[in-house]
Structure formats: structure tokens, C-alpha cells
Amino acid sequence: MKNQIKNFLEILKLELDDLKEDIQTLKQECEHKLKEGVITNYVHMENMALYDNELHAVNAFRRIVEVSEPDSFHSLDDLVIHLNGTFRTVMKACAYTEAGRIGIERKMLKVAKYVRSD
Length: 118
Prior knowledge:
The chain is an all-alpha fold. It has one domain (2-117). It has helices spanning 2-36, 41-67, 76-94, 98-117. The longest helix is centred in the N-terminal third of the chain and has 35 residues, at 2-36.
């Protein structure tokens, strides 16, 4: 069980890095669309604000993951409950968007499914 929890945390960190790269790519595409005249300046600014908010949320969640001690949890479910609860508190305090939470929760579910099947 402890190896499963440790594996979950390590793989989740990689998935969070991947999520950050995806958001950075979206920011680049948004810049390109603005330059091409596909979107207005207003849409560009709204999109960039959302992407930046999501990046801040991912960074905050990663800090929670990094300080989570695998030995403090009896099961993977306990860890996931802890991560979700802690992040929801931070999310509300920092006014992170739902989009960031959804992306993070998808990554957690993906990694949990993977380590459970291993």
C-alpha cells in the first residue's frame, strides 16, 4: 500500500507538469489567434486571465502534493480525500476557477486508476 501511495504522488507530479505544459500551449495558441485576428483583444485577455489562474491553481496543488507524507496515509483513498479537501480550501481562499480544479481532479483520477491497476 505504501508503495502505491508513493507511486501515486510521484506520477501525479509528472501529470501536473504535463498539465502545466498543456496550459502554456493554450496560452501560446491564444497569442497566435490574437495576432491572426481570430479573436479580439477582450477575448484574449479573458482567456489569458483564466489560463494564468489555472497555472496558479496547479502550482498551489503541486505544493500540497509535495508536502504530503506518504506514511501519513493508510490508503490511497485517504490520500486522495486529503488532497481534494486541502485543495478545495486553498481554491476558495485564492479564488481559483473551477476549470483548474477540474483539470487537477482528472489527473488525480487518471493516476489513481493507473496505480490501482498496477
